[in-house]
Structure formats: C-alpha cells, structure tokens
Amino acid sequence: MGEKFIFKSELWISCYTGYKATNLRSFIDILKKIDSSSIFYHIYINLFNYHNLPVYYPNSIAYWLYKNNYILLAEKISALDPTEFYDIEELRAKLVEILEKNYDEKIKRELIPFYFVKAEREIIECGYEASSLEEFIEGIKQSSINSVFYHLVTSKIEKRTLVNDYSTWLINIGESKKAEAINKLDIYTDTLYGIKQKIIKILEGEDD
Amino acid sequence: MIEEYIPFVGEEVIREIQILAKRLKGIKVLHVNSTKKGGGVAEILNRLVPLMNDVGIETQWEIIKGDHRFFTFTKKLHNLLHMPGKEKIESEEVVYYLKVTYENVNTINTEGYDIVFIHDPQPMGLIVKKEKGQKWIWRCHVDTSTPDPTAWRFIESFLNAYDACIFHMPEFIYENIKIPTYIMRPSIDPLHPKNMELSDEEVEGVLERFGIDPEKPIILQVSRFDRLKDPFGVLSAYKIVKRKYDCQLILAGGFAPDDPEGEQVFKELLNITAGDKDVFILNLPPDSHFEINALQRGATVIVQKSLKEGFGLVVSEGMWKAKPVVGSNVGGIKRQIVHGVTGYLVNSIEGTAVRIRQLLGNKDLRETMGYHAKERVRHRFLIIRHLREYLLLIYKILNSHSK
User: Fold this and answer.
1) Do residues B306 and B283 touch, judged by C-beta distance below 8 A?
2) Alpha-carbon span A127 to B15, nearest angstrom
3) What is the number of alpha carbons within 13 Å of residue A39 lying toward its C-beta?
4) Whose CA is closest to B9, among A126, A152, A144, A12?
5) Which one of A93, B76, B157, B388 has the largest count of C-beta atoms within 10 Å of its C-beta?
6) Which domains are assigned to chain B?
C-alpha cells in the first residue's frame, strides 16, 4: 500500500481588487494584468457557486458579456472548460485570445461594469484519511462538495497536473480503471452532488 | 446550537466550520453596532454572536450609546453616504459626533480583543481606541458607491486606520478605498420565526385570519409602505394580470409611528383599492414574523418591485420558501435572483405583469423555479455561510502581515 490519502477541503472569501471595467477594451487590459486569484474567482469559484443551477453561462465573464449583448463572445467564453486547464496563466492567455480575436474595436459603448473580485483561499484538512479503497469510499461519502471541488478541480491547478487528486491516488493503489473513469467525469455539466454520487458509484462498482 | 443547522446544510459543512473555528481557539472578538433590536444588522448579530460563541470563539456584542442629536447626525451621514443630497455636514455636528464617540470610548471596553468589528458609520469613531496588535474591521451595510464627498471624507478620516472593510457587494464600494475590501453577502436565518417551517394548517390559518382565500392564486409583496418600494407599481401590474387571472394581491408591511410618509402611502393604497375585495393592504406590527412567514408560504408568486434597494434580503426570505420571485433589476435584488432560473428580473410594470402571468399560468415552472430559488438561498444566503466567511476573514486578517 502506498501513501495515505488525506482528505482536504477548500474555503474562500471574496476580496475586491479595486479594478472595474466599463468597456471591453478596458476589460481585456485589466484581464491581462489582474492577479491570477481574480481569474480563479471568476472562472472556478463561479463554477462552484452556480454548479447546482441550470444557468446559461457558467462563469461570470461569459455572463457579463451576455448581459452586455456580446452574445457570440459570451458563447465562446462559456465554452471554455476550466477543468481542462492546470495553469491559470494559460487560461488567462486563452481568454485574452478569444476576446481579442472576436470583438470589434470600432464598437465603443459603455457597459454594465465588471468588478474584478479575487478569492482568498484556505485549504483545510478534514480530519480523516484513507489507506484502503474501503476507507477512501467512506471518506468520499463524508466529504462536502467543497472538498470534492478541491480534490477534483482546484488541486490540479496547485499541483499543475491534468490528473485530479482522487485519480492520482487510485493509480498508486493499482485502481487505474476507476482512476480513469473519475478523471473523465464531466464536472462542467453536472452538479457537485451528482459528481460525488458518480464517484461513489465508480468506486463501489466492479471493474469490467 | 450549530448542530441545529445540520438539516439545512449538512453535517459536513458544519464540521468544516468547526475545523476552522479550532484554528481560532483562544481569540476574542467584539462586534459593535448601534442597536440590539430592529434592523437587519441587529437581526444578523442576534444569531451570529451566539453561533460564534457556540463554535468556541469568545465573542461579545456592544452597542454605541447616543442621544437624539447624535443619531440624527448619523442618520444624515447614512443618507449622504448613500447619495449626495441637499443637506450638508456642519462642523458642530462633527464636534458633537466626536464628543459622543469619546463618551462611548470610556464605556465600551475594547481592550483585550483580537478582532473588533464595527458595523456601519455610527460607532466608526471608536477606532481611536485601537490598541497595538488588534485588528479592526469596518462592516458597511450601506451602498456607498456614489457618496456625498464631504460625508465620504468624514468616513475616510476613520477608515484608513482600519485593517479591512466589508461590503455586501462590489457595486456598493466607493472606488478609492485604500484598505483591503472584502465582499460578504448578508444572510437569513432558517431558524428565525420569519423563516422556520410552518404546517399547511398554520399557513391557511393566517390567510383566513386576514380573509384571504387560500384556494385563489396570491401575488405578494412584503415591504414597508414606502414609494421607493413601488407598491403602486405592483398594484398596476396586478390590474394587468387580473384581466386574465382571477387572483389576489397582498401588500404586507408597516410604517414606523414617526413616519408620516409611510402612513400617507398606506392610506392612499387603502383608498384606491377600497373597491377590490381581492386586494389586501396589511399594516402589520414590526414583530409579525410568523404572519409574514405564513403569507410568503401561502403566496403563489412573490414580487419585489423596488425602485431603489439596498440588498433587499426579503427576496431571499421569499426564495427560501421555494417561491419564484419577480424582482426589480436593482441593488442586491439582482444578486439574489438568477433571471429565468430562480425567478425573473424586471424593469417595468408591464414586465412585472408579464412575468407574474407566466408564473401563474404554469405550475411546473413555478415549482422548478421555486426549487432552484430555495437551493440558491441554501448555498449562498444562509447564516451558516455568513459565519464561515466571518471565521475565515478573521483567520486571514490575523495571519496577514499588515499594520
């Protein structure tokens, strides 16, 4: 048996950066320089905040564009799946690229302001761990959606990898099929409660 | 005590708060505001302070004392922070504010606390008593985005000595604040008589007491009688809806004894609706929590058609009862309602009427939106989230290296 899996969770508070955009040009300029924790907030935290609602646009940038009648841009930004990134700088570059490529510089109008907010995060240990698959399943059952979100989504950014925490540990204990199935889950289109149940089902299921 | 919230948010959420609270073991926290009764701040502190103590953080709550002259000035300051007006701040008012503040400095004990939360402008001057090593945080419940410059300068003279400040939403923040500025939404308490579960019999009992037919669709707005809450606009929307749907309208609220404008609005509403037996203008005492709760639970569609609004937590109270809310696209209402998902955001009387009709005509839509409305409040606007954010903020501030 390899390393123990330590269950953790992620909490955050929102802090205003002092930056506000009232047109698309200023938005792009701020986006290029804003603290990465602000991109984290608007893309990832919003994914969490709206995970259980059937919203049209899952991140606040896309929703802001939609509210300001930039429908094409809203669609393109909402199609960007943040779970496919492990590097916020790469995500920032992609966002800027989409915006700059698809908007018309000639259109100049005052927009509903966009307030750049950042997340101040704190990772806590939940107080339980797993050394076996059985303990791991029990741990997942006890986990909050914040914990699932951390291990499945945001830990990838911390560790700069495309494989989530759960799958990494499962590979280490020789459960690569379960690991692969969990890594393939579409977090972008389900609620975190639904994802948690799917993980438990994968873990409790027999491998083919 | 905190365990009582497990049915609403789950055991795992409570456990994480307890883990966070353990990190803060041994610290002392003080909240100071201007009243223990009445108003949203007191309502939140009435629950938040016991909850903080319950999770092991020694927390006290003090109020600033002042006379009519003092509070007349702070009321004026509050209004001027909200928007520039004809009134101006006079130098003798500032002197009097400082005099009362210094009197309070001698009676409110702020010594020995690690963290001091000052709520709103009234007790702000207490910062003069800040000790080395203490962290002071200003919790502002007012929209200060477009303040009167003199009012803001007055606030700023104290604000820069604070370690951080908190606002309800970024739209409420004055642009040039130099200290760390956090965003924390207010919250409702699911155990408060306003929000606790009621039986069908209790709900029907209240409706019948007011002569309201529980079988006929009900449109409800809960707000004090104030033109800014646009009760006349709601009435106009109801009249449009009434052409197609046999429904009832309830405008439930109240006005303070020293509010002649509120009384005037109430009387006008009574006069113009006197001929319609399906309209109920209810002037309720301020502690009618059970009745308001029952009316919200008995409503088919809830409306909040304010022309201007602070945060407007009454929207979340309606949403918590699994009701779709049709609300104006202003203030904090737009941060609570997710348009087309938990209700609708509207910009006019006609728009209000259309959305009400849409909801009255479609039970499935009402139920789906109502479900999502309740879930949104469960995740975003309950006091447990508020408590967690306070604890995390305290932790972050105590572990920061500023000042």
Assistant:
1) no
2) 10
3) 24
4) A144
5) B388
6) 2-187+383-398 (3.40.50.2000), 200-380 (3.40.50.2000)
pLDDT > 90 fraction of chain B, expressed in percent and rounded:
84
- Render pLDDT for A39-50 as a digit per residue (tens, 0 to 9): 999 999 998 888
Q: Is A135 helix (H, G, I), strand (E, B) or coil?
A: helix
Q: How far apart are CA B296 and CA B290, in angstroms?
A: 10
**Distances in Å between the alpha carbon of B397 and those of A17, A207, B134, B401?**
16, 48, 10, 8
Structure tokens at A131: 């050394």
Distance CA B255, CA B228 (A): 13
Cα distance from A28 to chain B (closest Cα, Å)?
Answer: 19
Q: Which two tokens stand for residue B263?
A: 């009384």
Q: Give the other-Cβ count within 10 Å of A56's Cβ.
A: 14
Helices B68-82 and B149-159: crossing angle, nearest 10°? 110
What per-residue confidence (pLDDT) applies to B403? 46
Residue A107 has pLDDT above 90, yes or no: no
Is B10 in Cβ contact with A15 (below 8 Å)? Answer: no
Comparing CB atoms, the residue among A15, A52, A144 nearest residue B181 is A15
The minimum CA-CA distance between A159 and chain B, rounded to whole Å, is 23
Q: Residue B186 in contact with residue B141, Cβ under 8 Å?
A: yes
Range B284-313 burial, b when 16+ CB lie within 10 A, else e: eeeebeebbbbbbbbbbbbbbbbebbbbbb
- Spatial CA neighbour of A83 closest among A35, A38, A31, A44: A44
pTM of the entire structure?
0.94
pLDDT at A2: 66
Kindly give, in sequence order, each residue whose CB lies less than 8 Å from that of residue B195, ignoring residues fewer than 6 positions away: B188, B189, B293, B317, B320, B321
Q: Residue A16: which of B20, B170, B388 has the nearest Cβ?
A: B170
- Dist CA A87 CA B94 (whole Å): 52
How many residues would you count in chain A? 208
